[in-house]
Design a protein that fits this description.
Elements: E1 7-10, E2 17-19, H1 23-31, H2 35-47, H3 53-67, H4 75-81, E3 85-87, H5 89-100, E4 105-109, H6 113-122, E5 131-134, H7 135-138, H8 145-155, E6 162-166, H9 169-177, E7 181-184, H10 190-198
Parallel strand pairs: 1-4, 1-6, 4-5, 6-7
Antiparallel strand pairs: 2-3
Helix pairs in contact: 2-3, 5-10
Keywords: Hydrolase
GO molecular function, one term: hydrolase activity
Protein name: HAD-IA family hydrolase
């Protein structure tokens, strides 16, 4: 089972929060097949902190505007999509229980500048955790090992003393590659799945009142 971790990193989308609708279907339905993929591709530099999300979306819409006679979405429409998500109260209860057991919890998530501001200033995420590692602020995004290496350096802890939970297998594999004790979470398993997966890292979690 190993020793308890001294810090636990949490992914956001798919673990602590969930979108309100299928983004791909919404974007493709509004503009046309393949548009969602273009949006997600355009977002990548913003996720790495190289450009702002607004800037890359404005560029994408200018390009699309030259190809299409009518473009039904504005930059503001696209930006608003990234605000359409909800915190999972049961997952937050598990996170809170981990903190109450004395293990600091930090976000470790791929987010661009617009989403970071919304999460901090509108949703109050800073009050939920002990710290945050956003890809756009680190200059690297999961599954790049540099993302996790930066966190370990900042925490000044060896990988075996740090836990991580994510719902994306490639991210879990990358974290394990630098020695972090990473847990793969199935969103369908809910809070019970989180408790089951994290108990080896945080002894006493299963017995804690959640």
């Amino acid at each position: 089972m190993g020793e308890p971790v001294e810090a636990l990193l949490w992914d956001c989308d798919g673990v602590l929060q969930h979108g309100r609708f299928d983004w791909r279907a919404r974007l493709d339905g509004a503009v046309g097949p393949g548009f969602a993929e273009q949006v997600f591709e355009a977002e990548l530099p913003a996720l790495r902190g190289e450009r702002s999300l607004r800037e890359v979306l404005e560029e994408l819409l200018r390009h699309e505007g030259r190809r299409r006679t009518h473009l039904p979405l504005t930059v503001e429409d696209l930006l608003a999509i990234w605000e359409q998500f909800d915190l999972d109260p049961e997952a937050v209860a598990v996170l809170t229980a981990v903190r109450e057991l004395g293990v600091p919890c930090m976000l470790a998530t791929n987010q661009q500048d617009h989403r970071v501001r919304h999460m901090r200033e509108v949703r109050g995420y800073d009050d939920l955790v002990d710290g945050s590692y956003y890809s756009s602020e680190l200059g690297a995004m999961k599954p790049d090992p540099a993302f996790f290496e930066h966190i370990l350096q900042d925490l000044d802890l060896p990988g075996e003393r740090v836990g991580f939970v994510d719902d994306v297998p490639v991210n879990v594999t990358a974290a394990r590659g630098v020695g972090i004790r990473a847990v793969l979470h199935d969103p369908a398993s809910g809070a019970a799945g989180l408790v089951h997966g994290l108990t080896p890292l945080v002894p006493g979690l299963a017995a804690h009142s959640i």
